[in-house]
Design brief:
47% helix, globular
Length: 218
């Protein structure tokens, strides 16, 4: 049994769930549309360029959650899943996940996006183990602060290493599927790095390293 690790955004779904959540909030009037859209787009550009200040971004992403109770947020997320996420899930992603399950592999999603947004998406794909950026909760309400290390760039490696120790797992035979050059630190340490619909920077490294490249898009 090997560990099969998946990035989420633009890997298992055709889009970025963090960015799409922002669009959902704007579309429904839950945030100031002009200000939020502008900031959301700017942070996404920085992510693509590899220059993102992850703590600044995560505080921005978590801030709208602080104004509402969990019942309201969960109701919003159900609507978000139906309107924005399910139409962007990928049949080939489901098939790849099922292939690893058939082998008896252990499946794990590691995503920079916060776990409020991503855990239900992982569950929808049948993956119940997920490492994502965690928001601080007090009395079951988000404070807007980040708990521990965000799962971004080298932070994915840090969090994974702690998870491996906690679960008595190793990276023997491991796979990691990702689209982004931001995930190079983790791609370098698994036995089977796989580039999925990669960005140009990642594809350049993949060609140099002779990594496998695939597409999950129809």
């Amino acid at each position: 049994m090997a560990l099969a690790i998946f990035d989420l955004d633009n890997t298992l779904i055709a889009g970025d769930s963090d960015f799409l959540w922002g669009e959902f909030l704007v579309q429904n009037g839950y945030v100031n549309a002009e200000h939020f859209s502008e900031q959301n787009a700017l942070f996404y550009q920085q992510y693509q360029a590899g220059t993102l200040d992850i703590m600044a971004y995560q505080r921005f992403a978590l801030e709208p959650l602080t104004h509402h109770d969990m019942t309201t947020l969960n109701q919003w997320h159900n609507e978000f899943m139906e309107q924005f996420i399910k139409p962007r899930t990928l049949a080939k992603a489901h098939a790849l996940i099922n292939e690893h399950k058939a082998r008896g592999d252990r499946l794990l999603i590691i995503t920079a996006t916060n776990t409020f947004i991503t855990r239900p998406i992982g569950t929808y794909y049948g993956i119940n183990e997920l490492l994502g950026t965690e928001g601080v909760l007090v009395n079951n309400r988000y404070t807007g602060e980040v708990l521990g290390t965000p799962t971004f760039q080298q932070g994915k490696v840090t969090r994974l290493q702690a998870w491996l120790t906690e679960h008595n797992e190793t990276l023997n035979g491991s796979y990691f599927y990702s689209d982004s050059h931001n995930d190079l630190p983790l791609l370098y340490i698994v036995e089977h790095p796989v580039v999925v619909d990669g960005d140009s920077k990642l594809l350049s490294v993949a060609q140099e390293k002779q990594w496998k490249t695939i597409s999950l898009r129809d």
